[in-house]
Recover the amino acids of this structure.
């Protein structure tokens, strides 16, 4: 079952990518040279974007942040390690001068929601043109 869990090109990530492109933002994907291998790298804005799954990265207060009932000790360790690795990556990126944005899976149910989040961070003169 775990083999089917993807780390790249997930649905939330694809929605954020489409929204960013629709807003005229240009980016690189999964730059291995940067800590944590951010999902989107906007070099012009010196900004990296992580599109995190609520379950795996433990979005606080989200209904998707559950713990499986079987083997719960394993899952607690796994989730703690994920959160610690995320915090270390974010700190290293900030020390390198990058601005770090985290967009959660539940915040990107549609491309329009993703676009609104990005518009708040990257204001521009014209609005979002896609009505999907």
């Amino acid at each position: 079952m775990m083999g089917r869990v993807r780390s790249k090109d997930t649905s939330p990530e694809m929605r954020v990518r489409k929204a960013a492109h629709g807003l005229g933002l240009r980016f690189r994907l999964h730059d291995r040279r940067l800590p944590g291998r951010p999902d989107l790298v906007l070099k012009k804005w010196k900004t990296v974007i992580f599109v995190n799954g609520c379950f795996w990265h433990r979005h606080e207060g989200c209904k998707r942040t559950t713990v499986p009932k079987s083997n719960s000790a394993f899952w607690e360790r796994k989730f703690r390690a994920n959160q610690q690795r995320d915090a270390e990556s974010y700190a290293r990126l900030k020390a390198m001068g990058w601005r770090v944005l985290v967009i959660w899976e539940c915040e990107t149910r549609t491309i329009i929601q993703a676009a609104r989040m990005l518009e708040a961070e990257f204001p521009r003169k014209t609005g979002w043109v896609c009505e999907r």
